[in-house]
Amino acid sequence: MRVNEEIILFFTVLKWLLLSTLTGCAVGLAASSFIKFIHYVIEEGNRYEHVFYLLPLSFFLANVLSQFVLKQHLGTDTLIAAINKNYGRVEGSLIPTKIVNVVLILATGGSAGKESPCAQIGAGIGSMFANLFRVDDVDRRKMVLCGFCAGFSCVFGAPIAGALFGIEVLAAGIILYDVLLPAFVASITAYQVSSALGITFFYYPLQFVPAFEQGFFIRLLLSGIFFGLCAYAFIRAVRASTAFTTGIPIWRPLKGLIGGLILVGLTLLFGRDYLGLGLNLMESCIKGIPVLGYAFLLKALFTIITLSISRSGSVITPILFIGATAGSVYAEVMGADRATFAAIGFVSVLAGATNTPIATSILAIELFGATVAPYAAVSCVISFLMSGHQSLYTAQVLAVQKSRGLPDQVGQEIGALPNVRGTEVNNPLESIWKWLRYYFKAN
C-alpha cells in the first residue's frame, strides 16, 4: 500500500512532539532541582564572609574525588564528542558524577558556573529515555541532543537560544536542521517547567536608541574586534594554564591545595567580587554602573585558576561576566553608553569563545530585547571570526574555514588542530589582490 508523504511527515512530527515534550518535562524538573540546590548552597556559603578560606580544602577534596572516586564522568567535551561520533552513547554513568565537585567549588567561592552539570543532566535523561523506548542510533542522537539543549535552556532562561546553543556548539559553522523541532520543543518545555517551579532568570530589556551621527556603528565594529580578541586570549590562557598545571610533577590533590591558597591570596588583595558566579557585579554592568578597568582581567584570572586546578564547574557564566565587564570598560574608553556595550559584550565574548554567533545573537534578543539585538548580532559575528580556529570546547568540530588566509582545517576537532602560529598559512593580502584584479577585469 502506498502511503502519502504528508501522512509520514505528520506522524514523524507527532512522534517528536511527544518524545521531546517528555524529555523537556523531565529535564526541567531535574535541572531545576539542581539549580535550586546549588543556589541554596551558594547563599548559605555567602552568609559567612570568610568562607573563601575553605577554597584550599574544597579544591583538595575535589581533586581527591576526581582522582580516586569519580574516574568516569560526563564532561561537556565528552558529551559533544559522543554526540558527534557515537550517536550520544557515553561510557560510564549517565548522571554527572562531578556534581559533588561543582557543589564543593561553588559553595566556597570558586569562579565557575553551573551550566555544564545541567547540560549533563539533560543529556543523561535523553539517553535514559532513548534506552527506555529502544530507539535506533539516529533517534538516540536526537534525544540526547534534546536533553542537552533543554539543560542549557534551564540555565540561560532563554529557550530558543538554549536550543540553538546546544546544536551550534557541536560544530563551528553548521546547524543541524533535522534536530531543530525536537530541540526547540524540549527547550521551551524545560524552560516552562523551570519557571513554574520558581526558578528566576536574568532578564533586563534595554531602552536603546543608536546614535549613528556620533559614530556608533564604528564603535560597534571595533567592539566586535575587541571582544573577539578577549575570547581568543581567554581560550589560549585556559589551555596554557591547564597544560602547565597538568605538567607539574606533584600529587594532584596537592595542586588543588596550592591553587586554593593562591585564590585566597588574590581574594584578600582584590575582594570577593570575582568569586563564585559574580551575578551582582554582572547585573550592575548591564545597568550601566561603572566597574574597575581591569575587572574583566581579574575575573579571567580567578576563572583560569579555578578551572585548571579543580577541573570542575562550567565556564559559561564566567565568560558572561568577563564580557559584560569588558564591554563596560570599552564603553568608558570610547565614550559610549556603558549599559549598551556591557550587554553587547555579555553575548559577544561567549560567541567568540564557543563559536556560537547565532545562538548568542538570539540570546541578546531574549535577555535584552529586540532594540539592541541587531547590533549585538553584528558584534557576535565579528567576535566569532576574530577568535579564529579556537574554542573552549576542544571536541567541537570545525565545519567552516573562517578565513582563506588560515590553513584549511575543516572537518577536524578543534582540540586536534595545530597552533596556527608557526604554520604555513595563505597570504590574505594575496587573496585580496587576486579578487581586486578579477573584479576590475570583469568590469
UniProtKB/TrEMBL annotation:
It comes from the Bacteria. The chain crosses the membrane at residues 7-31, 51-70, 144-177, 183-204, 216-238, 250-270, 291-309, 315-333, 340-358, 364-386. One of its GO terms (molecular function) is chloride transmembrane transporter activity. Its main location: membrane. It is found in: Membrane. It is a multi-pass membrane protein. Keywords: Membrane, Transmembrane, Transmembrane helix. The keyword Transmembrane helix applies. Gene3D superfamilies: Clc chloride channel. GO terms for cellular component: membrane. This is Chloride channel protein. It comes from Fibrella rubiginis.
